[in-house]
Design brief:
- By secondary structure, this protein is of the alpha+beta class.
- It folds into 2 domains: 57 residues, no CATH class; 177 residues, no CATH class.
- Helix content is 27%, strand content 30%.
- It contains 6 helices and 12 strands.
- It has a 6-stranded antiparallel β-sheet with strand order 4-3-2-7-8-9, with helices on one face. A two-stranded antiparallel sheet has the order 1-11.
- Strand 5 and strand 6 form a beta hairpin.
- The longest helix is centred in the N-terminal third of the chain and has 21 residues.
Length: 245
C-alpha cells in the first residue's frame, strides 16, 4: 500500500469514529466534501482536512460535551464491571490497539447476558513502544466502574460514549462502594437536564476527553471527600430512571 493510501486509511479511521462528530459539525467542511463526487476525491479532501487539524490533534483531543441524559440514552450498553485483562496488538493498518476484557457484574441498560465483555480501545504499549491517543483514558487493569458503551460492535477509537463522560470509577470507602469520575472526583448527584440549576448548567461545547464528566454529574472538589459520594446502587438507580424516562 502506498504512503498516500496509508495516510488516507488512517485519516479515514480517525475521523470516521468519535472525532468525526467535531468535523461534521462544521458546515464549511461538510459543504466542501459534498462537492467531490468520487470516493478518491472525497478521500483526498478529507486528508487535507486532517492535515489542517493535525497540529491541534497532536496536542489534545476534544470531544463534544454531553449531558448525562444523552449519555444514558445514547449508550447501547451500560454495565457495572471490573477490568480483568489487557491484550495489546497491532491491527492491519499498523496501529496499536488494546482489547480490554471486563467481567460484567450488573447490566444497567441494554441486552447482554455473557459473563465477560471485550472492548477495543485505540492505543497501548506493544514491544516497548507506547501509542497514546490524547484524551483517551483506557480502563486500568483491576479497575471497577460503571461503563456507558456507545457500541459493542462498531470500530471506534474509544467505545465509551463521550469518552470520560461515559466512564465512572467505583471506590471502596469504609465498607461502602462509591462513585467517582475518571479524575477521582466524588460524584454526589445525578441531575437530569431539566433539573440542572442555571448556575452549574453549561452549554454544549467541546471538552477535554480524558477528565470531564457529563453535564448533570455533580462532584466534590477533592478526591479526599469520597465519603460524600453516591453509592454504586444509588448511581445505578438514577441512571435506570434516566433510561426509562
Amino acid at each position: 500500500m502506498g504512503r498516500f493510501a496509508v495516510l488516507v486509511e488512517r485519516a479515514t479511521l480517525y475521523f470516521s469514529t468519535n472525532a468525526a462528530r467535531a468535523v461534521s459539525a462544521v458546515p464549511e467542511v461538510n459543504c466542501m466534501l459534498n462537492h467531490f463526487n468520487t470516493v478518491r476525491l472525497r478521500r483526498a479532501a478529507l486528508l487535507w482536512v486532517v492535515l489542517q487539524l493535525l497540529p491541534i490533534a497532536v496536542n489534545a483531543t476534544t470531544i463534544l460535551g454531553m449531558d448525562i441524559d444523552a449519555v444514558a440514552q445514547g449508550a447501547e450498553l451500560v454495565f457495572e464491571g471490573q477490568v480483568i485483562q489487557h491484550n495489546t496488538q497491532e491491527n492491519a493498518a499498523g496501529m496499536v490497539v488494546t482489547y480490554v476484557t471486563f467481567e460484567v457484574r450488573d447490566v444497567v441498560k441494554g441486552s447482554f447476558s455473557e459473563q465477560f465483555l471485550e472492548l477495543k480501545f485505540t492505543g497501548g504499549t506493544l514491544n516497548g513502544q507506547v501509542m497514546e491517543v490524547s484524551g483517551l483514558r483506557m480502563p486500568a487493569l483491576d479497575e471497577e466502574g460503571i461503563y456507558f458503551v456507545e457500541s459493542i460492535s462498531r470500530d471506534l477509537i474509544n467505545p465509551l460514549i463521550g469518552w470520560s463522560q461515559g466512564h465512572y470509577i467505583i471506590k471502596a470507602n469504609e465498607g461502602e462502594r462509591r462513585i467517582s469520575t475518571v479524575d477521582r472526583m466524588p460524584v454526589t448527584e445525578v441531575l437530569p437536564t431539566g433539573t440542572i440549576p442555571r448556575a452549574i448548567k453549561r452549554p454544549l461545547t467541546i471538552i477535554d476527553g480524558d477528565s470531564d464528566p457529563a453535564t448533570g454529574i455533580v462532584t466534590e472538589a477533592s478526591p479526599l471527600l469520597i465519603d460524600r459520594a453516591m453509592t454504586v446502587e444509588d448511581f445505578k438507580a438514577r441512571i435506570r430512571t434516566l433510561v426509562e424516562n
